[in-house]
Every structure is written in C-alpha cells, then in structure tokens.
Amino acid sequence: MxxxxxxxxxxxxxxxxxxxxxxxxxxxxAATLAYERFGVNPGRSGYDLCVAAGDVVVETRRELTRxxxxxxxxRLVFAYNATDALNTIILGILGPGDHAISTTxxxxxxxxxxxxxxRDRGVAVDFxxxxxxxxxxPERIAARFRPETRLVVVNHGSNVIGTIQPVGExxxxxxxxxxxxxxxxxxxxxxxxxxxQAMGIGALAFTGHKSLLAPTGIGxxxxxxxxxxxxxxxxGTGVHSKEPFHxxxxxxxxxxxxxxxxxxxxxxxxxxxxxxRTLDGIYRHEMELFARLQAGLEAIDGVTLHGxxxxxxxxxxxxxxxxxxxxxxxxxMLDVDFNIASRTGLQCAPLxxxxxGTGERGTVRLSVGPTNRPSDVDxxxxxxxxxSRDHLS
Length: 393
Fold this sequence. Notes:
single chain, 2 domains, seven-stranded mixed β-sheet, globular
C-alpha cells in the first residue's frame, strides 16, 4: 500500500501522552538495521544470527533493569505493551477472596482488569479518589487495607491531568503490611526517575512507545524479588522443550512465544539516546515548554484547565475545555484548521473524568514530548485562542 500524502513537516504534534512522535531517527535507523541484519527468532538456535539477536534481548533486559533500579535482569520480562503487562500482573496475583485497592486516576488498562476479577473471581476492589490537586493521599490508601488485601495498583503519572503520584510513600506503607504494590509507569518511564527497590514497587508495568521512544507493540514488567506473578499463558520458550508444563522460572514464567525483536531493539537503542540526554535534561526540556503552553492557555477567555495548574509533581500533560463547545469539535478544528494533533474524549480514564465533572464528553488533551519545540507550543496557544474567540464572539 502506498503511503498517504501528508505534509508531516507542518504537523504540530501534541499527543505525546498517546505515543511519542516523531521517534528520533537515529533510534529507528539503528533498530531497523539490527532487524535487517539479524532479525531472526532470538534464543531459539545456536547459529550466529540467532545468538546475535539473543544478545540484544539479554542486554536490553540488563539495561532496563538498571534503568528501573532492579536487581535481577531475569525478572525483567517483555510484554506487548503496558495493558498486556498490567493484565499479566492483576490476573497473575489476584484470586477468589482477595482484596485490591486502586485509584480514580487509573487508565482502563487497570480499571477493566480489576472489574473483571471482581465480577469473575470474587475479588473485592476499592478505588480511592484523588484529592482536589489530583494527588492520591497515601494515607487514604492505607485506610482501605484489610487482612485479605493482596495488591495495590497505582498510576504513577496521570494521562489526563499529568499529576505524579507519591509512589515511594505508598510503597513504604504497602511494604510494612506485606502488600504488593503494582505501578503503571506508562506515562513516567523515560521521563522521570523510577527505582523499584527504593520506592517499594513489587511489579512495575511499562510500555515502550511513549517516553521510552521505542516502536509500538513492546512493553514489559519488572517483578521485584519476593513477588510472584502466576503465568496466565503457556507455550514455547525456546528452552526445555520436553517439559509438559510452562516453565516456572523468570523470565520464561511470564513470556511465551516469539518476542518482538524489533521492539526490543528499539528499547535497546533508545536507552542510549535517553542516557546521552539524561532524564533530568529531557524532563526540563518538556516542562519548560509545558509551562509556556499552560500559561498561554490559562490566559485565554473561555478556556478552562482541568486538574491542577501546579508545575510541581507534574508531567507535561493538560486537559482543557472551551466554554460551550464539545471537546470533539475543538479537537477536529485543531486538526483540520490548524494541523495540530491532540486527544479528545475520556482518554481511557473515565473515573478521573467523573470526579472532575467532565465524564460526559471529556476534554481536549495536549501533551508535550521530547521532540517538541517552542513554535509548537505557540501554534497551539494561538489556535485555541482563535477557536475560543470565534465561538464566543
């Protein structure tokens, strides 16, 4: 199929919370070259190409284990994405009679699996509301602890309002009670530091295609020492093929079938890109642009910014509405009239929208990424100002 005609140079892309775009060309070129040269089934045979592919997989496990503050690369397992990883964690830990706690800032990749285990396995589930500033109070989570509480699941960074949760404090409270803390790091991995040991994280779910700058279709889990996640899928591992049951040791325990080698290679080469620029450097770049964006939008008549406007404990993500306008219409105007990519609706996070009062139609979400420039921010401010002025005049 021929590629559609599109002027990518004129696109103002502010949907980085969905996936970062464009990916740095050096990452794509290196990953594609690796796939071209030895894109065979890694770890399945002993010939040179297979060994080379396997080395990339092993080295990427080591890199990501270091990156997340883990201790055992074998406990870094690959998945399709964060949704796949979170399903593996939730379905692999919770059973009949168990109790789980989560929050209202969660994505449907947490809400729906928890609702399914509640309906299908008899698991009790509590969702703790965020405070007015978008932060979940750790003590309000601890107040829901029961003797049968097995799992707490927390979204590290909101994909709707950008707030970063106090995972370290929540982890400390969970550790004191012997409860597993699972963290959804979809929005934070690759932009803010994560240390699973220091933060008391039992299972960390991440995706590759956001701030880790890899292609879509790759993600994973880091399972901390002492935490056991039961496998929910069974199949080939490339080793011990005579065994009639799926292997119990990590990483095979939670991996089956052929891995996404191109995605893993993307993660591998993106680690080098991130290391060169540092997490602090990436975060400062994004937040400087975001502060400019938020200040400009806040000054526009008819525009409401939902959630906190504080720049502390924050990701470069905001949600807005224009008085009297459907967010879907605003998003279409941004796209068609101004060539600006945004995200409209509920952003797969209905509970926080219900809490904010935007649960019917949602918001327009704008999110800054590592390749954005000041001109992108200024274009978005000017576009929203013009849309609001024309509607309210």
